[in-house]
Specification:
By secondary structure, the chain is mainly alpha-helical. The chain has one domain: Non-ribosomal Peptide Synthetase Peptidyl Carrier Protein, Chain A (Orthogonal Bundle), CATH 1.10.1200. It is 54% helix and 0% strand. The protein contains 4 helices and no strands. The protein is globular and about 25 Å long. The termini are close together.
Length: 82
């Protein structure tokens, strides 16, 4: 079973995987999309791959750049609850 990263952990992971500086404060806004943060689809794919590797996410997570990091955290929370 995987673990859900905290908003701060997700912000750090996004920053490491994409090279875009992201803070947990930015992730707190429920309307901020990955695109708003400057994350493109390839960057998002890297984030999702790293989440699988580092947090044990065992299923494909379907996200695109118009989704929000908060939506991603919610999906990951559902994954952990399984």
């Amino acid at each position: 079973m995987g673990t859900t990263p905290s908003p701060a952990e997700l912000a750090g992971l996004i920053s490491r995987c994409t090279g875009v500086a992201v803070t947990d404060r930015q992730l707190a806004d429920p309307t901020t999309t990955f695109s708003d943060l400057g994350i493109d689809s390839l960057g998002l794919m890297g984030v999702l791959a790293e989440l699988k590797r580092s947090h044990g996410v065992h299923r494909d997570v379907e996200m695109n750049t118009e989704h929000t990091p908060r939506e991603l955290l919610a999906v990951l929370g559902q994954e952990v609850a399984r």
